[in-house]
Each structure stands twice: as structure tokens, then as C-alpha cells.
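Holo prediction — flavin-adenine dinucleotide.
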Amino acid sequence: MSGGSLIVVLGDQLSPALPSLQAGDKARDRVLIAELIEEATYVRHHKKKIAFIFSAMRHFAEELRAAGWTVDYVPLDAPGNSGSFTGEVARAVAACKPERIIVTEAGEWRVAQMIAGWEAAFGVSVEVLPDTRFICPLPVFREWAQGRKSLRMEYFYREMRRRTGLLMDGGEPAGGQWNFDAENRKAAAPDLFMPRPPVFAPDAITLEVLALVGARFADHFGDIEPFHFAVTRRDAEAAFAAFVQRALPRFGDYQDAMLEGEPFLYHAVIAQYLNCGLLDPLAVCRAVEAEWRAGRVPINAAEGFIRQIIGWREYVRGIYWLTMPGYERRNYLEHTRVLPEFYWTAETEMACLSAAITQTRTHAYAHHIQRLMVTGTFALIAGIDPHALHEWYLSVYADAYEWVELPNTVGMSQFADGGLLASKPYAASGAYINRMSNHCGNCRYNVKQRTGPDACPFNPLYWDFIARQRGRIAGNPRMAQMVRTYDKFADAEKARIAASAAAILARL
Ligand code: FAD
Ligand code: SF4
């Protein structure tokens, strides 16, 4: 090529609207996309996640070629594939002698560090463009965060509503309220009609990837088949359209519910598409707003969905870039216990955990409340090392990238940042799971029992957590009541709690 630009497209940048592609020239530039062993193994990702991303990358390369781009696509098993971003860019620079490299900023700090070294390593100018697929530019988030003592999502979310105009009637929130979360806490009944996300049969490209991943990553967690993910923009849009039609109207009502044998309930199951670029966050929010304005979905569903995307998703990205590096090692509660083996095997008699981990192994998916209030809460009250838990979440979900997973795990779920993100630790006894799910009826443990060998393990661990961490949490207004309740227990009950918790922890 000698002369044009080398446009490097990362595996989570599969969007034609990508700034680096917009800045390029199809007639002169080359696009580099590479499957990299380093990226597939820096944590041992779920087999289905690796297959999803590789197949989506291969389909995106085809999409770009059809649009007139020259694409150098490096499959995992291509001769000479060095296995790393820097190695592949080095090979491309040596072969094509570009006059500059263009890349859209990386989602992860680790990759951004690599990119920062390219100019010096290759003697070629490197242009790093802001990722405009996000709604809140990072400097805007930094400015919002500056000088605030508490970075609560709710205030940020209101700014995003104003910025996008989503669900706004002039300067006021549509429906008269910013947030309808109070209406979104219904437990699902087992006889409700449950929509299922559409399934997409693997095409020839996906079948080839499934064989490759099955052979090369056989020892990674998770089932590779059945494989039903969309791997093209068109199919991802069809999956989203099916959600809007079939599940969105009840999305709000049952957002926090859990049901045995129903892994998806009324959730969208689109985070894996949003996070790799197959769906555009603002476009899906506009489509959901249009459904509400047309009278086809209630306000609590539309607002709940839009809040997750322009609120939570943008907010955790802002927190990630505000706090990295270092956030990944935060451990405010000084938890050091190793991650129990059953997080990988699902072999536990706790029905709620077994269900969440089994479906994670099958689908590379669990919905938010399973992540937060089942696997997350258990790890919190059992005192598991938050870094080990972070690596688990990053490995096992098809939608997991560090910028979104880390703040959710370290901040929201484990309170390991001391309350920068969450207003209280998400510690809970079995009563919460019993209220929101039907798992307890199928469990070997008794959710009503606080201590003893048959007690739901969440119960003694919860009270033991309160006792162990009281010095750090008693001052939190949202925890003070539980600390006072614990203090009122008779000494004998406190001793039974401590003994039951110790017995459970010893078995982990
Ligand atoms: P829905 O429930 O249908 O929500 C719609 C969309 O809103 C999601 O697709 C997602 O893009 C967005 N969203 C919802 N909640 C959040 C949130 N808390 N943070 C960011 N975006 C949100 N989400 C990821 O995308 N990747 C992760 O690696 C990830 N790790 C998590 C780890 C923990 C411990 C917890 C508690 C949450 C994590 N989440 C993560 C957030 C959330 O659980 C998932 O986005 C959601 O379950 C994806 O399923 P869905 O598409 O059906 O979402
Ligand atoms: Fe989970 Fe406890 Fe209920 Fe069993 S009894 S399903 S461990 S909450």
C-alpha cells in the first residue's frame, strides 16, 4: 500500500459507523482485523464467547469488503499470526508501510496501553479517535464527576436524558417522573408466558469458527453448543426487534425476577451485541422510546430499559476510565477467600447458585439480578477475593469486557471501592431470593432457618458479614438498621450464627 493508512479494528469495534472507518479512505487505506490468542486467553473466556466474537469479526470483515474496503483478516490459525495486537500491527506495518495508523480508542485500559506504545515502536504516526458510539464522551463524564463527593448514577442519568432528549417533554421527564423503578420489582409466576430470544442457526463461517474454538479452547469453561447467537448486524437487529415486540412490554415489571428453567425472562439479551458494536446504544433507546410514544409499551418498561443503557452502561464506562489503573485491585472489605470451585462446576446444593451457574455454562448468560444478588451476593457475604471474582465474571459472560464488567463487580456487587459506585453493599439473606424467585422450593436448604446444618447458607453468612464488617458499614445509613438488628440478637444466637457461618466457609 505504501502511503495510505492502516486502520486497526478491534474485536469489539464491529460497527460501520466506527470513527476510524469514517476517517479512512476506502480507495487508499487497508483495514486490519486479527484473531489473537493473547486476547482469547488473558482470562480464559467462555468457549461460546470466543466463538461469538470471532464469528462476528469474520462476518464484519465480509461486510466491510462488500462495502468496498480492503481488509486484511488474520484468522487465529493463520501462519505467522503473532497472537498479539502489537505483533500483528508490526507485521502489517512491515508489509504495507502505511503513512499513519488510525484506531478508535480501546474499550479496555490494558489495550489502550498497548496502543500508546505503537508510535514509538513503529515510527509511524498513530491517530487515536474518541469512540463516538458511546453517548457520553469521557471528558464530559470527568467534568461531571469532578468535585462531587458522591457519584450516584441517578444524577448522571438525568444529565444523559437531557443530553439525548430521550423521554423528555421539553425540559421535563416524560410521564412526570425520572425513574419508575419502584414499579419494577414483581416476582414472576411460573405460569406466565415466557418469550425466548430468537435462535440463529450457525452458517458456514460460524461452523468453521465453532470447530476451531472447540479444538483450540477445549479446556476453557462453558458449552460451545448449542450456538444460537446472532453474529451479523442484521440478525442482531432482528433479535432486538423480537425483544421489543415480545418482551419489552413486561421488561420493567419482571426485571428483578428469577425463575427455575427460565434463563432469560423478559430481558433483552442484547448486551453482547451492544458491546461488540453490532447494535447501536442510542438507536435501540430511540426505538424503545418510539414504542412508548406509540402506546405499545408502558412507561415503566421504556424508562427502565433506557435507564440501563444511557444511565448504567454509560456511567460504569465513565467510572472505569476515571479510576483505572488501580480499580481492578480495590478491596475495601479486605476479602481474601479463594473463589469456590462450584463457580466453575455448578456442583452445589444451593439451588439458586446451581441454576445461575449452570445457565452461565450453557448460554454464557445470566441476567442482572442473578449476577448481582445470587453469584455476587454469595461472594460478598462469603468474603471472596473481589479480584478473583472479577476474573470469573470477565471470563464467563458473552457480554463481558473489562470497562463494563469491572465497575459492576468491584463497585456495585462487591463494594470493594468503599462506596464510590454503590450506596450500600448488596448483602442479603435468603429472604430476598425467596421473594424474587421460585428456587427455594427446590432447594435442599431451608430458607426460613437462620442457623444449623439445614439453614439456607445465605442466612448465617449474611449476619456473619454484618458482624465481621460492622466497623466498615455501621456508619452507612442504609446498613445501620441491620447492624442494630444484629446487635439485638442474644449472645447464644450470635454464637450459633458464627458457628454456622464458619462451618459453611470451611466447606467452600
Ligand atoms: P437487560 O436486563 O435486558 O438490560 C438491557 C441493557 O442494559 C443490557 O443489554 C446492558 O447493555 C444494559 N445494562 C443493564 N444493566 C447494566 C449495568 N449494570 N451496567 C451496564 N450496562 C447495563 N453487563 C455487561 O454488558 N457486561 C458485563 O461484563 C457485565 N458484568 C456484570 C457483572 C456483575 C457482577 C453485575 C452485577 C452486572 C454486570 N453487567 C454486565 C450488567 C448487566 O447484568 C448486564 O448488562 C445484563 O445482564 C445483560 O443482559 P441483557 O442484555 O439481557 O440486559
Ligand atoms: Fe438459594 Fe437459600 Fe433459597 Fe437455597 S434456600 S435457593 S441457597 S436462597
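READOUT: Strands lie at 5-8, 30-34, 70-74, 100-104, 125-129, 168-169, 172-173.
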